[in-house]
Amino acid sequence: MPILGIETSCDETGVGLYDPARGLLAHEVHSQVAMHEAYGGVVPELASRDHVRRVAPLVRRVLERAGCSSRDLTGIGYTEGPGLAGALLVGASFAHGLARALGIPALGIHHLEDLLSPLLGTPAPRFPFVALLVSGGHTQLMRVDGVGAYRLLGETQDDAAGEAFDKTAKLLGLGYPGGPALSALAERGERRRYRLPRPMIGSPDLDFSFSGLKTAVATLARDAPQSAHADIAAGFVDAVVDVLATKCVRALERSRLTVLVVAGGVGANRQLRAALGARSREHGFDVFYPAPELCTDNGAMIALAAALRLRSGSAANAHFGVRPRWPLESLSPVS
To answer: Which of 78, 83, 81, 72 is nearest to 107 (CA)?
Structure first.
């Protein structure tokens, strides 16, 4: 019963094929990083046009790798939102067209249900758990009691963590996307040279703020020599990781849960994984991550979420549309 998943929310075209009985059969991702690098960020119109070029060939390749044909499909999931409207429309159009031709259901999936992606691993987390969604567009803590049963515990009040990474990398003269380059630079720096602020780390809530930290880096970088950039990067990464880890522990304690799931692009960050590993041993909780290649946007997570929803009897989308803005906690739980 393979389910096809199509992800086109931003600058990666992802296609995945998931079977509830056999697991993830195949997936492929095409990144547009090289195309957008010259502009220092994602250009929505270019992103949409590239999705148009990539989605059909990727679907064919994934089906071939899995030894399946389109006639074997029993459903198609696609990213309905949130994301760039034009990019979302490409995936939604393709999914609805193919589903109509095959006579199978098409189901719109929330992009942030990638918090379910660690369920593809072995061992897999069990509900309920706390999820840290940490990427270029989102930084949120969620209580997850089941598929669709999400309760927001805290979120960023300004920049997302991944966005702060990219903006800080730009301040230090690194290329786009800057997050991975900044983390690599930080590994060569002296962490204790610059003690940067930890915004909201002492506040009683579970919210985040990273714009002030970015401003502190800008002030340092303005007068610091090039030779100090690795130390500044180390201080920045250390501050972000400290805030994220501290809030995760606090969320688990308040929820009285012992399982943490981390999803999103920043979830692949080595410093964050090391810090959460140390905190888990100290406080006695378990941490689950997606496989590294599933930390970025991908179709595998969309196929998984669609399969879980279709298995529970969720209805296919009768209408055609996308939702560039769509709160995750507005979803309904599945039985």
So the answer is: 78
How much is the pTM? 0.94
* Residue 15 to residue 4: CA distance in whole angstroms: 7
Greatest alpha-carbon span in the chain: 63
315 membership: H or E segment, kind and range: none
Count the Cβ atoms, other than its own, within 10 Å of residue 267: 26
From first to last of the 335 residues of the chain, give the pLDDT tens digit.
Answer: 899 999 999 999 999 999 999 999 999 999 999 999 888 889 999 999 999 999 999 999 999 999 999 999 999 999 999 999 999 999 999 999 999 999 999 999 999 999 999 999 999 999 999 999 999 889 999 999 999 999 999 999 999 999 999 999 999 999 888 899 999 999 999 988 999 999 999 999 999 999 999 999 999 999 899 999 999 999 999 999 999 999 999 999 999 999 999 999 999 999 999 999 999 999 999 999 999 889 999 999 999 999 999 988 777 777 788 999 999 999 989 87
Q: Distance between CA 44 and CA 108 in Å, rounded?
A: 21
The angle subtended at Cα 16 by Cα 153 and Cα 103, nearest 5°, is 105
How many helices (H) and strands (E) in the chain?
9, 10
Q: Are 183 and 271 in contact (CB under 8 A)?
A: yes
How many C-alpha atoms does 247 have within 13 Å on its Cβ side? 32
Q: Strands (DSSP E) along 149-210, which ranges? A: 149-155
Return the amino acid letter for 194: Y
Joined together, the tokens standing for residue 45 give 């119109």
